[in-house]
From TrEMBL:
Protein name stated in the entry: Two-component response regulator
Natural source organism: Arabidopsis thaliana x Arabidopsis arenosa
PROSITE patterns: RESPONSE_REGULATORY
The keyword Transport is assigned to this record: no
InterPro entries xrefs: ARR-like, Myb_dom_plants, Response_reg_B-typ_pln, Sig_transdc_resp-reg_receiver
Top-rank taxon: Eukaryota
Gene Ontology MF terms: DNA binding
All residue ranges annotated as the Response regulatory domain in the record: 35-150
Gene Ontology terms describing biological process: cytokinin-activated signaling pathway; phosphorelay signal transduction system
The protein's role, per its UniProt record: Transcriptional activator that binds specific DNA sequence.
CDD domains in the cross-refs: REC_typeB_ARR-like
One family name in Pfam for this protein: Response_reg
GO cellular component: nucleus
UniProt family annotation: Belongs to the ARR family. Type-B subfamily.
DNA sequence: AAACCAATAT
DNA sequence: GATATTGGTT
């Protein structure tokens, strides 16, 4: 008996030690690095959840399309550790998902729903849901969702570690366990997407782009010696990688020949690098002849043709909001103090600008330097860069340097920094851009940062913030111009905006060609009044076109219905290469590349209603 | 030459 | 981030 007791005591001790070490081990692994797949039809819900879960170091994948989610799970068995699935998911609802997943994969599945009817909870539980949570899912619930992974492990095999991705050894053990439990892994469920394999032709995208982490270690790309890491500096942002779908127009490929390597710009010797300074733009010199002109203000009339400042009336003045800060208008009497410019003395002598009361000096701030508008008459004196002979001196410039033996003149590259290869916003990419704007909540809420994040969610990789900023700027300009129909709107943008894009811009329930972000008029106006209001000075000329409310656009409903209820239009789980590879399609085939595009572009060409 | 437009500067 | 300017293409 005594022996038995001692023996038992020893067992308990060992067991306790083991438990303690196991718990310690598990503690170090959860919740961080746990790969969660959340499937819900509502993209906003997904984004919110992802945002919250990211704070707990979960790796979160989201998907709005049930079938794609299931295909992803099947094809990437080891990528996901736990699934959260919407009970009322269209296509494959929570129960079907449970059946599929639990029968083929050893994954804990949490069902979430906006109701908690006993029957639903019961069914979910019956089909093997490890939890049933009600939307909106509380943060604590998400924070602790990892417990289901641990629980599942402990129930099935107490000594198995969780399949946390970052630990290959553990993954191996998991595979072993799966084999032990005879988990069927060979049968694809549906639409199995083949895993992409990197070949010499198909290379992973670089540096900080999505898959870099994954493959750096496997394939050893990181030690590639390049200009950046050669010099022990923090490497600059990696250049974007164009996929087959998203290709830049390599318009300046000339430089490839000239300098050997497309992107090896840093070695180009130029004036800037010679003196080891940042490039400085030549300073302006104001003369009596050369006066700054304010964009869009008094003198705009004069120069609008030349400089494209077509509107004196601008959004500000039209809607009286930020325009309350009436901008200072410079004229012959009222001249700006160009304090940092060479000849400012000349003018400051004659006019006491400091007494000009304006918004700026009322509040004790320095008056803003007016932006200048160049006309043909008024040209800046660009210090040493003035081309007087009309020759193209863009690339060569004569500079004089003071050497030890006196002055020598050398002709050299002026050192224009080569520009990034231009990207082209293809129609499909632009559509995604528009889609992203919609998701964000409209053009008025869109900004480059949030847009680029949203595009990344939509598996558009490699687009930079400035890419988006630039496009957004143009987009907004086009939206504005869309209010002012021009005879000359024959270009792609105008066409797109006259037909397709505008329909996507309005807020949810407003049928109008006027983008919502331009709608600064009183909310109480009716449709006609709004249009008149918005178009202000234009109504006389364009009365028929603009002030008539457009007919109801049936596709709006269609579109939004799709948006909110049906399957989404884009696959958020695959990148473009994978998409292409999976579908075996050509990148140029818009319809096929995005087979579930929620609208037919032709649909937007409404008969009898011409936005132009 | 002018329109266009993404990149870049402010 | 918004907007103006630049530099390149069409």
């Amino acid at each position: 008996m005594l022996v038995g007791k001692i023996s038992g005591y020893e067992d308990n001790t060992r067991s306790l030690e083991r438990e303690t070490s196991e718990i310690t081990s598990l503690l170090s692994q959860f919740p961080g690095n746990t790969n969660v797949l959340v499937v819900d039809t509502n993209f906003t819900t997904l984004l919110n959840m992802k945002q919250i879960m990211k704070q707990y170091a979960y790796q979160v994948s989201i998907e709005t399309d049930a079938e794609k989610a299931l295909a992803f799970l099947t094809s990437c068995k080891h990528e996901i550790n736990i699934v959260i699935w919407d009970f009322h998911m269209p296509g494959i609802d929570g129960l079907q998902a449970l059946k599929s997943i639990t029968s083929k994969l050893d994954l804990p599945v949490v069902i979430m729903s906006d109701d908690n009817q006993t029957e639903s909870v019961m069914k979910a539980t019956f089909y093997g849901a490890c939890d049933y949570v009600v939307k909106p899912v509380k943060e604590e619930v998400m924070a602790n969702i990892w417990q289901h992974i641990v629980r599942k492990r402990l129930i099935f095999k107490p000594d198995v570690a969780p399949p946390v991705q970052s630990d290959p050894a553990r993954s191996d053990r998991l595979d072993q366990v799966k084999a032990d439990f005879k988990i069927v892994e060979d049968e694809p469920i549906i639409n199995e997407t083949p895993l992409i394999t990197w070949t010499e032709e198909i290379q992973p995208v670089q540096s900080d782009l999505v898959q870099a982490n994954k493959f750096d270690q496997v394939n050893g790309y990181s030690p590639i010696m390049n200009q950046d890491n050669m010099f022990n500096k923090a490497p600059p942002k990696p250049r974007m990688t164009w996929t087959e779908v998203i290709q830049p127009v390599q318009s300046n490929l000339v430089q490839t020949k000239e300098f050997g390597q497309v992107n090896d710009y840093s070695q180009i010797m130029n004036q800037d690098s010679m003196y080891n300074k940042a490039a400085t733009k030549p300073q302006l010199t104001w003369t009596e002849e050369i006066q700054p002109v304010q964009s869009g203000l008094v003198q705009a009339n004069e120069f609008s043709k030349v400089n494209g400042y077509s509107q004196i009336m601008n959004q500000d003045s039209m809607f009286n909001k930020s325009a309350t800060n009436q901008r200072l208008t410079w004229n012959e009497v009222l001249q700006p103090v160009q304090s940092d410019l060479v000849q400012s003395n000349e003018f400051s002598q004659f006019s006491d600008y400091s007494q000009i009361m304006n918004e700026d000096n009322m509040f004790n701030k320095a008056a803003k330097k007016p932006r200048m508008t160049w006309s043909k008459v008024f040209q800046p004196v660009q210090s040493h860069l003035v081309p007087t002979d009309g020759l193209d001196r863009d690339h060569f410039d004569s500079i004089t340097i003071n050497g030890g033996n006196g002055i020598q003149n050398m002709e050299k590259k002026q050192g224009k920094k080569p520009r990034k290869p231009r990207m082209t916003w293809t129609e499909e990419l632009h559509q995604k851009f528009l889609e992203a704007i919609e998701i964000i909540g409209g053009i008025e809420k869109a900004n480059p940062k949030v847009l680029v994040e949203c595009l990344q969610e939509m598996r558009i990789e490699g687009i930079t913030r400035s890419n988006v900023a630039s496009h957004l700027q143009k987009h907004r300009i086009n939206l504005e111009e869309n209010q002012i129909p021009q005879q000359t709107q024959g270009n792609g943008w105008a066409t797109a905006y006259g037909t397709l894009a505008t329909s996507l811009q309005g807020s949810d329930n407003v049928n109008t060609t006027i983008p919502s972000y331009l709608m600064n008029g009183p909310a109480t106006l009716n449709q006609i009044q709004q249009n008149q209001y918005q178009n202000g000075f234009l109504t006389m000329n364009n009365n028929q076109i603009i002030t008539n409310p457009p007919p109801p656009l049936p596709y709006l409903d269609h579109h939004h219905q799709q948006q909110h209820q049906s399957s989404p239009q884009f696959n958020y789980l695959m990148n473009n290469e994978e998409l292409l590879q999976a579908s075996g399609l050509s990148a140029t085939d818009l319809e096929l590349t995005y087979p579930s595009l929620p609208y037919d572009p032709q649909e937007y060409l409404i008969n009898g209603y011409n936005y132009n």
